[in-house]
Design brief:
One of its GO terms (cellular component) is extracellular region. GO terms for molecular function: heme binding; lactoperoxidase activity; metal ion binding. The protein has about 350 residues and is mainly α. Helix content is about 45%, strand content about 0%. It has a two-stranded antiparallel sheet. The structure holds protoporphyrin IX containing FE and 2-acetamido-2-deoxy-beta-D-glucopyranose (2 copies). The site of protoporphyrin IX containing FE has 27 residues, from helix 3, helix 8 and strand 1.
């Protein structure tokens, strides 16, 4: 049977689309597959207003303090990169969480972001009577709504994650989170372990279009010798904020539009105004440079890829079905559950402070 004109046209279009994306050297813009056990309508019956409640809370909180958006976005990133998106980052006593004051690493996650997650949890508890929406899903939704609230793209978030009763250990943190002093090869090595690629690296690093960094996260680029890849005017500006090594102050990650989710982060990199080595090297390195240039030129391309990469990141090693639990209190595992593996404190002795300090966060 001869192909119908419609089918033939569809086939031609498919060829055109395929060659277009090859020519553009783009990442794969198809939506990543939804992990088994997750779905877009997971709470349709059990908590139909869940997404709206998170959205309204975040919108309001960001209006009052735009820094919350950066805090919430980074919280989701840390959650997913360290032992998977299981809300372990929220556990009091976790090496990444708010109980970390016991010892390094000090990751400077915003306390206001933790408080926001707990406040959202309270609202959902009242609305849907009980522990229905997991803390890890709240993190994923709050990150998306933070992006939207600061002007970035929306994307659909697969839901149904379950929360882990296990703390993130210092070892998990050290191996899971790349340091800001990293260059592209070591960033890619970390991402490869969690099935993310160079396109994801460049797109996700665009999260640094909002928020703040401490001097200690980049002052190796100022002292003792300035990093020659840094724009000299940018260097003198940073030296005003951080006059000596170890200054306890913060500066914007995106010098152009510090509170807007846009593609100016990439424009900064073109002008050698990236704050961290891990940012600027995306432009220095020949493998990632074309994508930086493309995102700097075309904000829509960045937005599309950011949505795709966030969905990928948001599904790293998720717990589903009857794995894990839905925490009643996002800061503590449910009463009666056993930690199961090494707690933070037992690992602290084996990993040691020296290793944690070298993390440089
Ligand atoms: C690729 C490797 C990454 C490295 C090395 C890195 C490193 C850092 C560092 C060192 C800080 C500042 C901490 C401080 O000095 O207080 C920071 C802040 C931040 N990061 Fe990343 N990051 C990475 C990826 C990401 C990703 C994937 C996202 C989200 C998609 C993200 C979102 C943020 C945000 C929003 C802030 C600002 C937080 C605030 O203002 O409270 N980062 N990052
Ligand atoms: C950890 O970071 C917080 C927030 O920036 C800061 O107040 C605190 O002094 C730091 N603690 C250590 C031990 O560096
Ligand atoms: C949640 O857990 C944390 C950490 O154990 C605790 O400090 C806090 O009081 C708990 N909140 C509620 C509402 O029970």
């Amino acid at each position: 049977m001869a192909p119908t004109p419609l089918l033939a046209a569809a086939a031609l279009m498919a060829v055109a689309v395929a060659s277009w994306s090859l020519a553009e050297g783009a990442g794969d813009l198809r939506q990543p597959p939804v992990a088994q056990g997750l779905s877009f309508d997971f709470y349709k019956r059990s908590c139909p207003r869940a997404e709206t409640i998170v959205q309204e809370y975040v919108k309001d909180a960001v209006r009052k303090d735009v820094g919350i958006a950066a805090g919430l976005l980074r919280l989701h990133f840390h959650d997913c990169f360290v032992q998977g998106c299981d809300a372990s980052v929220l556990l009091d006593g976790s090496a990444t969480g708010p109980g970390e004051q016991q010892a390094p690493p000090n990751l400077t996650l915003r306390p206001s972001a933790f408080a926001a997650i707990n406040a959202i949890r309270d609202r959902l508890e009242r609305e849907c009577r009980g522990a229905v929406v997991s803390c890890s899903d709240i993190l994923a939704l709050a990150a998306r709504d933070s992006v939207v609230s600061t002007g970035g793209p929306s994307y659909r978030v697969p839901l149904g994650r379950r929360d882990s009763p296990h703390f993130a250990t210092v070892q998990d943190v050290l191996s899971g989170l790349p340091a800001p002093t990293s260059t592209v090869p070591s960033l890619l090595a970390v991402l490869r372990n969690i099935n993310l690629d160079a396109t994801d690296l460049v797109a996700l690093s665009g999260g640094h279009t909002v928020g703040l960094g401490h001097c200690t996260s980049f002052d190796d680029r100022l002292f003792p010798r300035p990093d020659p890849t840094m724009n000299p005017d940018f260097l003198s500006k940073l030296k005003q904020t951080c006059p000596a090594k170890g200054t306890d102050r913060r500066t914007a990650l995106d010098i152009r539009t510090p509170n807007a989710f846009d593609n100016k982060y990439y424009v900064n990199l073109l002008n050698r105004q990236g704050l961290f080595t891990s940012d600027q090297d995306l432009y220095t390195n020949a493998a990632t440079r074309p994508l930086v240039e493309r995102f700097a030129r075309n904000q829509q391309d960045f937005f599309n890829q950011f949505g795709v990469s966030m969905v990928k990141m948001g599904q790293i090693k998720v717990l589903t079905g009857n794995q894990g639990q839905v925490r009643r209190n996002c800061s503590a595992r449910n009463p009666g559950t056993v930690a199961g593996d090494l707690s933070w404190s037992s690992l602290a002795q084996t990993v040691g402070e020296a290793a944690a300090e070298s993390l440089g966060f």
